Fold each of these.
Amino acid sequence: MAQLDLRGISKSFGDTAVLRDIDLSIGDGEFLTLVGPSGCGKSTLIRIIAGLEPQTAGSIEVDGVGIDHLRPHERRVAMVFQSYALYPHMTVFQNLALPLTMARLTMAERLPLVRLLSPRRRRVMAGIGQEVGAVAEQLQIDRLLDRRPAQLSGGQRQRVALGRAMVRHPAVFLMDEPLSNLDAKLRVHMRSELADLHARLRATFVYVTHDQVEAMTMSDRVAMMHGGRIIQLGTPAQLYDHPANLTVAQFIGSPTINLIKGRIGTDGAVEIPGGRIDLATGLPAGAEVTVGLRPEAVVPAPLAPAFQDPVRLPARLHRRENLGPEQILHFDLVGAEKAGLTCRVMGNESVVADEPVDLLFEAGACHVFNAAGERVALPATPASGRPPVRSVAPLIGGTGA
Amino acid sequence: MQATLPTRTASEGEVSPAAAMIRRMTGLFFVHAFLLAGAVFILLPFVWMLVTSIKPPEEVFSAELSFWPDRFYGLENYGFALTAAPVLRFALNGVIVCTGILVVQLLIAIPCAYALAKLQFPGRHLLFILVLLALCIPIQVPALPIYVALAWLGLLNTYFSMMVPFFLSVFGIFLFRQFFRSFPDDIIHAARLDGMSEFEIVWRIVTPSAWPAIAAFSVFSIVAHWNDLYWPLIVISDINLAPPPLGMMYFADAETGSNYGALTAAATVLTAPLVVTFLFARRRFIEGITMTGVK
């Protein structure tokens, strides 16, 4: 159990800066996810925490004590790799026992033949055998202990990799995209298992993924990385409801947020193709803005939402994806070239194609970003933020994986 | 969609199953005939050696060419070869020298190759270039200084003197380096996190995965040094230390010079261990060659 602090971590390969001045405090027992597109530096950061790569600048502390000078195995961290990284020629038991034998046996006791001379070795190995057995039982891999990794399925290898991390009782678990080699169904299953595991172990988890669904469903907090920086740190709900900039808004949420280019009119309202939105942005008239609308905030008029004073945009249905409990509707805006809006609506009542309909949304549901892509703070209105009676988790989880 | 697919007309080549079968068979026939011709070309000298080793002298020198001997003379030839010269002693010398060279080569080449393939250190590329350059230096170049050094140390006429120039195998370093490059970094990272030292990673994690490469390299190394005449000729004058080719030379020099039946019998005895080794390592050897991209 440990608090992990990163202070001013930077990393560059030659002239290429991969990480720029990362400051991050991860609380004891917290599940923190580093999320971002590939190449954003998240894997490099987790390798630096593990001690597998040296940082160019900055320091790492566990419970207030610097660990920069420690070698990987002295850092009380364990890592689960995307490729599982099991030792191919060892059985599952040997894979699980290896971290313990390395820690508890002397060099001589690990040598072939010489080790037979040590009476202590047998005692230690018996203890290790018990611990490995206990972990294997927890992960339901106790029947596979004699097999080699090549004889296991992807999900089983994943569990062995997890078990190898667990036997060491590390203070911090580092996970580098552990689910991305699994098929979609297994990934959803392992997501909940990992969340359970975290609840049971109460260890600090640092989890790297490029999959925003994993980030949203498992984490206490999410750090979204881009271009070697953390561009937003917060709870999944904060990132979803209050994205700090366009990059976060576009990355988090599936289907992707709707973005409409607009500009501030003379009266201060936001003018968009086909309509205007009454919002006090505080920006000068003529300023370019981008309006973001989550798909569930936009509703076609025939489905009659109880919005007060909604914005109306005429549109035409272009494509419809029925997901069972909900449907994703893709509309083309009437009168705006190549501009479209995506709606997510519950149920599967049909909206007639080819007939123009009005799309409704409330001004309070809009996210406004300035020309630099930064979020513009809006004065709170009673109906602000998000549409009523919609919770985030099922909406995201439903289409995920 | 179907309408837009190009449709084949019967005149264009509607092939009946029987015709297809015949075409396939003739193709296979020619391919195999070609391969068999190549195999015969390569195997004929060996077969001729085997046949000669069981022929009596008058048949070896007879003007007409006969493949199979009229009179089986194998026992006499092999008996003479084994008693007139210490042929088994030559074979044992060959085993000692080849094993010694191979073990030390592996002990040195594997860690070197791991360092070149997986460790980051300044000068890594320069070192690798030096390894590649060293591949171009034949043994004849350093022969003289090594001979002088061995003579000065009084080590001529020892097993050690036969082995020492070959302890560092740049070819081995190169071959293993190519093989290790494809070894997953994550497994090495995991081993570091589990507390293994670099040497333990080399011997306990990386080497067990390298058996195909080790087998391939072993075949190269054993064949090269079993058949080496040049270096033993320089450092060995004691017939009891002679490896196979040098022993064969001594054997041929004596009064047996024209007894081809006995000579080929001795050659057969001295070639057999190589053939057996290769048969055992064959599959791994081929894996190793194909996986390292070294041909």
Amino acid sequence: MKHPHRFSRKHMLQISAGMLASVVALYTIPFAWCSRGAARWLDGDREVQIKLARGVERLVFDQQLSSKDFRTGFDLYDGEWLFGSYLMAGIGFTQVVMEHPDLKDEMEPLARKAIEKLLRDDVRAFDQQLWRADPLASFAGDNHHAAYLGYLNLLLGLYRKTFGEAHFDDLHNQITAKFVRHLSGNPLGLLESYPGEVYPVDNCFVIGSIGLHQSVTGTDHQELLAQLSVQIRDKYVDADTGLLIQAVDPYYGRPIDVARGSGTVLGLIALHYADPVLAHDLYLAMKSHLASHLFRFGGVREYPFGQSGRMDIDSGPIVFGFGLSSTGFAIAGARRYDDRAFFRGLFATAHLCGAPVGWGGRRAYISGGPLGNAILFAMLTSPRVNLSEWEILP
Amino acid sequence: MRQQRWWNPKLGVISGSLILLVLHTGLQFVLARYDIVSSIFSAGPHVPRWMFVLTVLFVAVRLALLLLVPMLLAYCVARRIVGVWFVRR
């Protein structure tokens, strides 16, 4: 039997209205729900920062993490992820105090604990295995150890600048002196992360840490920093896009990988401490060539529009062209430069995928685990910058 | 009186949405209360299977709740409004 009303005008109108409403709903409701806490993070709300700090403390410190807790399939990456968990947690604890100095007593022991964890034998083992030398015992040697020492030195500088404590001053001075020695007269202007492997993004942390050492101690590295900035702009920033080249060969510094999102957005975070103008230029290039959105949820592509490439440990999963790493790391840049609309979009994406929960005065992203939560903590607390003077805002 | 079937959109979407909402809240509580994600990261492949199942279920329920439910609810409401408008016209 036929259904006389199936294709009636009323029925067609109902379906059309329903479909239109569902598209409008998809475009507005999920985003409004997921982005509703973004303004508090942008404005540096004390409570949300404390809650995430306590959540990260619980995830990173309350259990005895080891590289075996990470299952990337490669020992090197497992070790890097363990290192990254403590590093990002430490950066986050430090940045909270940069914005809220009254939390110094609560955050300083946590930041110090993160650094002490980073100095543990098992945490630096990933670097030691590749170099066949201990990174903390070879300050006078020729090995660069840029992957381990570069990131560590930036945290040491942030700790020293923020807390004014002298616990790690000697180590901070020694690592910086080693970097300055290796980079002075270095034709590439870059150090090796691992033997035969040179990554500009790791060197952004090396260079940023030298800049931070200069601002903390007053030691003059300006000439070297200016020379390194010029080298990065000339050789390691892609001429077409303005993005940072991901990897170069160790002999001539020629690109062996393309310019990518994950390296660019992570690198600019540290580079700010050495050359804030270059860091901002990288951010603007990222906005032009990588930033996009899907139903208003913000994302950052791993490869520029019109290009595609492989997924790897740097990019994380790539979905519809958006890289997990580049999207997460870009939160720091958006907050740093007070890019409110973009921050809101990225925050909504983190909320949707991360599924934050609160319990007992803590907050954590369910799908993040120790590393994901530590990274989001460091990105969401990234210090804001006064663009007219390039200074970190209190 | 004509009986409403369980899959009838007029009943199913509302009740389905409520079920998803309750399920999402419950799973969120369980995952946080028993620290399941941390356990997965700590124990790796040795983690009990029910923890993995709960986590996957949570992700599926969350995506459905945040993306699918608003669309379906809006669809139903719009259809109902147009229907009422036709009757009153």
Amino acid sequence: MTINRRTFLGTSIGVAASLSAPMVMGAGHGRPKVVVIGGGAGGATAARYIAKDSKGAIDVTLIEPTRTYYTCFFSNLYMGGFRELSSIGHTYGKLAADYGVNVVHDWAVGIDRDAKTVTLAGGGSLPYDRLILSPGIDFVDGAVPGWDVSAQNKMPHAYKAGSQSELLKAQIESMPQGGTFCMVAPPNPFRCPPGPYERVSMVAHVLKEKNPTAKIIIADPKAKFSKMALFQEGWGNHYDGMIDWIGADFGGDNVQVDPDAMTVTIDGEETKVDVCNVIPAMKAGRICEMAGITDGNWAPVSGHTMQSRIDENIHVLGDACAQGDMPKSGFSANSQAKVAAMAVRGALTGSKVFPAKFSNTCWSLIDTDDGVKVGATYEATDEKIAKVDGFISKTGENAELRQATYEESIGWYAGITSDMFG
Amino acid sequence: MRYLGGVCAAWVALTGAAFAEEGVEQIGDPVRGAELFQVCGECHEVGTDAAHKVGPVLNGIFFRKVAVFEDFEYSDGIRRARRDGMVWDLEHLDAYLNNPKALVSGTNMVFAGMPEAKDRGDVLAYLRQFSDSPQDIPEAAPTAKPVDVSLTPETLAIVGDPDYGEYLSSECTTCHQVDGDYDGIPAIIGWYDEDFVLAMHAYKQKIRPHPVMQMLAGRLSDEEIAALAAYFGALE
């Protein structure tokens, strides 16, 4: 009989659970080693859960280049003036001090899958028994004609939070009266499906106060987007006439930009703009490609364990992986990290492994105290992570419910960030 | 009687009350579904460049409101379902494929129904591929379903007492005319017993959308529904 990929993946949980006796000793010496690349919602959560639940039996190293990590979720609220930038910045001290995670602030620049080592930009290499990749996204070259990463100061993406968020916010605030803000929205699939539209809401919120005659244009390669009815209702209620969404049916998929001239050409028609937020098409963080575990733009994984379909010693989490139905969100990455942490502990220490279950909720803020949400539950099948059930806020909800939804999102932010960083 | 033998059991399987949180299954096998769809394909198109034929295009059907195309002429029955807020989710699509007129009285879809749950699942798995992915639009329809463990086909085998039905019918006849006239509220006399029972259970389980009927059917016992079916079925 031939063992194909599906048989392997379908049985791997059972194998992990039944081999509870033998402890796999790591890299030939001492405790088994797990290396995690990327300290966001996937990686930080995985590092913390493996360290916490293995009670020191597994040696966990987290590689993350930034010392202060700014969450992409809630960075739109910073842009709208609802949060300080410092309130979405997080450090890794607790992961090191309270959980014993070895935090390395460096770039991973190579992965040798045969030797099972990770090379660091600063020199040296780290051996692993299991590697967890949670590098987030990078942009597809040439996705928006006229734009590349060298133009990101003139036309920011602000889709990795931090200095880009600060730059875009400053540009919006110094727009001339009656000026034009343009967003070039990304094609599917991309990080945070409602994110661009929450951002437009937040930009409109700022402009309504400071620059009420300003205009917002969205050039969108899609004919539909997440929470579309909710956003469009909210834009009508709060920002009537300010926002012009140009979807694929109206040429929004035919866009080029000129960062020097500050022009955007949509379906052949050139427009002079004052601020241009270009969010290009996305792909898995480049380290996945360097590791040779991508298929197209993303790294395919089994939903049962988040193991790469190409290398069973590597798990891929969050935005970078192709897993099935879950949206690319921080909530999803955090949810997937717990499944991966359980599978990794099961494989390395023989701890018990339960069937994978996932969930996600995305809150978005449309204007002050006007919050909406969409959520779903997911489970692993052999083919993919499949959506089982879900809900979405309804149009026409009363103000009290919308305020409660917003307040719920603030509670969630506090919850998930302590789940990630301790 | 001609087509309902297997339908009752399948309907109960579909609408059976309790769902256990013990796992999921795929809706069905989309490859086999593509073959089965050839029957549907006589009237419906799906995929790139699909257009309306005898029936409307089925692209994006999952989670779509009933009867949305302005360029398609729907039956009164389907339009009524739309007014009542029906949405094509998995449950409704499955019920409709099972027996179109048990879900929508007066539908133009001339199709006896697909009694095998597996066949329906396979066709729906095939059609699901032509609707939004939850990865891109999180609120898109599920692509798998919870495993259903509570099934009791006995319910629909109950023989109703027409005298008891006549007594109960007074609540119905406030709105539905006993002589079968239609003035905006559908006639309910002369139905096959099974059709009536299926329809009432569909309201009771909130599969059929109308809120007043959901409320009224919701407090009827299985025996009472059977009794009403026997009574109204005998009227002409």
Amino acid sequence: MGNRDAARLSLFLLLAPLVLWIGLLIILPHLGIGYLSLREKVAPRVYQFSFANYVDFMREPIYWNTLLRTAVMSVLVTVMTLVVGFPIAYYIAKVAGRRSRAALFLLCLVPLWVSDLVRAFGWIVLLRETGLISGFLQWSGLARGPVELLYNDATVVVGLVYTVVLFMIVPIVSTLDGMDNSLIEAGYNLGGSRWTVLRRIVIPYAMPGIVAGCIIVFMLTAGSYLTPILLGGKNSMWFTEQIYEQFITRYNWESGSTFGILLLAFTSFVVWAGLRLSGQSLATTVAKG
Amino acid sequence: MTNDLECERLTKRFGPFTAVDGVSFEIPRGSFFSILGPSGCGKTTLMRMIAGFEQPASGDIRIKGRSVLDLPPNRRNVKMVFQHLALFPMMNVGENIAYGLRCAGVARNEIERRVKDVLARVGLPDVAGKEVAQLSGGQKQRIAIARCMVLEPDVLLLDEPLGALDLKLRERMKIELKLLQHQFATTFVYITHDQSEALVMSDRVAVMNAGRFEQIGTPQQLYHNPASAFVAGFVGDSNRWAGRVVGPEGQGVRVDIGDGLSFVAAGSAPAGTAVDIFVRPEAISLAAAMPGANRLDGMVDSLLFNGAASRVLVRLADGQLVEVAHVPDGREGGLEVGAPVALSWSPDQTRCFSRAA
């Protein structure tokens, strides 16, 4: 066996797990779902190829309204996560001392130790009618009766921001870490105000991290299930809930598959539009970040 | 007021460590001033205080006669060329230079005119549209200077900007920097640990050690009349002996360096003082001695050829090596390794500094 063959074999072995993972867990299921979504049930156990499932989706306003609503709320969550996460990331990367940096990073990671479900119940304990905050408001006389803070959009947004903010902080910290402090000092030295330095030097430098963080956060939010259901209840109207209902409650796999494909297509479109609007591309941002 | 920059008893402490200790100096308008010192001597801290990135514990900084201590960095008319230049990678060359003008709110067409003008003055008229990464090391250097000079600062600070360049380019940039300074007629304050950079470019040099200025003077003064043992050892090459003063002799003192050897050195010190003696390699002659000269006998240990800066290492009887400047003339029959030689030099070329100080 020649040297080239050996190199090829090792490349093959190195790539095999990745190829298997992507092939078996991502491409294959999506092919299956895509196939299912293009089937129409015409009689018991009789199917034919058709776009009927997609037509049904368009005919029923509640479906595409929910999808739009999910997308809009996810964009809102992404923006809020960025607003909350950027100052934290900047502080960790540029202001905090070497020792406190590790501690701060760890503090950001701590919530991940606890399962999603338990964290969502944590919010419920705080926010429900008989919860801590409601109780405190009544005790202090700020509210007459019990206050229900659960089951509205604001709570869902807050809960989601809390769940995903770490995924915004980490990529931004890692890009800002690579930034030479003298760039910031040069920005001031040449006459820039705080705002100018932030807008013209720090943010453009952090852009790859910001874009990577936004894509991750948006995708996680749009595809999240537990937090919107538990904190939003019946009012949350998250699109993943519709998918769940089609698959599990109605046992309508064809329709559920259609929704799955539509969610994937629509969120991909939003990411693409976001990249276009901000003048970035995947190659220059994610690859760098 | 003819001084662009004055510092008065400037002090900075980091916890118990005093980085800059009561430094005072003034720099006349339009001159090239260098601060020369080993790393960790406090020169960067001093520069950062002038730029406004550090607050002094005490003392005053005046630019054109006006104290700037209460001004933040972005309001001081002192611009800085950073060690690694700190050109903004997200902007092209033109935008880098225009940045400061835009911060100052200069009109768009005025910015365009001044960017073009300054690029022509640094000799790079066609690079405005290029990305920073497309420039060579020397070009980046000039852009970093242009980015500051376009703002017409009172003082330009340069923090070892040649450190990252290779030797050949560094030699060329030294001359170029000096020419740029003449052309802009702005006060340059140049920080370096490289004595040849400081000597070649500066009108005046301050030698800094452990937070203090050891001496301020022209490069010639520092080289020929060092004020302290540190300056004598740091600026230029020197042969060094430790000894003890025997007593006055002629214009100077006789110093015993052990092994039955003694030299006459310029200066004065009471008998018994421990001193260090410095003799420049080019002060030592291999030719016949003049009367009253200090003498040593030895033999040629090795010949270090380096063109006009060639040296001969002479080994003394006690094994010590002495460096002697000697330019070989290229003819046969010159010095040979192992040959006995007699060294001599004049007492006024012999500096002596007491040890305790």
